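Before our next group meeting I need something from you. Please put the record directly below this note.
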Amino acid sequence: MAFPISRQKALREWKLYFFVIPSLVMVLTFSYFPAISAIYHSFFDWAGGETKQLIGLDNFKRAFGDDVLWNSFITVSVLIVFNLFKMIPSIIMAVLIHRIKSERWGYFYRAMLVVPMIVPSLVTLFIWKFFFDPNLGVLNNVLDFTGLKSLLVNIDQFFGWGVFLPDVPIGWLSQPELILPALFIWGFPWIGAVGVLIYLAGLQAIGQEVYEAAELDGVGPFKKFLYIELPLILTQVRLSLVLLIISTLQGYGLQLLLLGDSGGPGGRGMVPGLWMYNRAFIAGEFGYACSIGMILFVFILALTFINNKYVRVEK
């Protein structure tokens, strides 16, 4: 029996509601409820149990006078700058793979980039922690083998830093002055599989006629990248930039595993997310941790707004 078109349309809409409403309920329950709970508890002196005391804006007043918190924002700002530089190798790798003429080899290189994603990130972090080991770590052994350690020692003696000493292993995670350089080195050669795939998607959307016209005009490989490929993947670069800022501001797993909950010697690796974790699970100040989360949320929202407003991509 055939239903009228209007009734068929109504049935399709009801089927859509049947799937959308439960999904919306789950999003509200597992995403919005924790956020609302955090906002609520940020106004309380709360240690995580049933007992809590309303203190109004005291947690926020305390946060604005918290030197550790604001120093952690300085640290995370430096890490954002580091991560901006780390975007460059991914862009270059995507361009190189895109320019491979053989489909088979192009597929091979894409697959080789995706395979490391199977390895749990926790394993990768512990491997890097071993790399930074002062006695057995790969990094110090490479520096000794290549003679770069002697170069660093000479530079140190010239400037009087007192960081790189002749017969002392470099303590990348134990010397306060080397915490940020170690976080910058982490992830070398800084080729992220997800970033490369995002840029590749933008590059593959460039029509072949654009390259043919460029070749007729005698445009070289570097100018192709500068005037054709880079401008046409700025949308993907902008998306990566937003995700990078959010993940860097929110993240603290790297610092927690490499440096501990105190952020390493002198707290040089402390970031807002790690300080929030420290206050909640080490100090038991869950209400104060919630207020730090709210401040962090405002920072992320403001930076995302600035990025969307001022980082424009001309079509």
Summary: The beta strands are 44-46, 52-54. The mean pLDDT is 87.
